[in-house]
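During the no-cost extension, the postdoctoral fellow (Dr. R.K.) reprocessed legacy sequence entries with the updated structure-token encoder. One reprocessed record is reproduced below for audit purposes.
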Amino acid sequence: MTRIYVICEGQTEELFVNEVLGKPFSAQGIYLYPRLIGKPGHKGGNFKIERLLTDLRSTLGNDTGAYCTTFFDYYGLPESFPGKKESSSKVSSADKSASLLDEMGKVIQNNLGQNVMRRFIPYVQMHEFEGLLFSDPEALARGIDQPDLAADFASIRGEFSTPEDINNSAQTAPSKRIESLYRQYEKPTHGSLAALEIGLNSIRSQCPLFHGWLQQLEALAATPPL
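Re-encoded structure tokens follow.
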């Protein structure tokens, strides 16, 4: 049995881990335990490196046989977060992600040591969770009970190579695009419903960075016990 704690930015990501990732991963003997970053009872967000360091130290210190990963979005990171400034000059989502994760890893290793890094799998969602939902525009529309919006969602998706490239300005982030067409969109509820309608396999097939992250987690099942 492999245990992986998933430090999430907010309730949307927490629900996604429980409702979309939980079952297929447990079938492989991998058990995911989502946790909102920071103090118990808060609603997520404010993903500062200091809070991440505290959570990693506590989580991996209390369970020395477990792994830990992150599930947060690039869009919401403060400019002070390690690697955010350096990665902002990169063009592709893959290059932005690689640059950010490299700098973040250096800070974590310098503060917490190699043993923590050995059990830590960093991941950043480009650009935010809702980008994944454009993996299947028709299923997204069905999932939020707005089938008439399928063509609009497909038009947005058609502008980008992958859903992970849908840009992240304050006006054109994936969630803002959905909200502009459906004002009643609620991230935790509608996001999870849409993701379930789309299905994990479709998301993985359309989102290479997300798929690569899950492959890293799945590979831990074959790793010798810590």
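The longest helix spans residues 93-112. The mean pLDDT is 91. The remaining legacy entries will be reprocessed before the final report is submitted.
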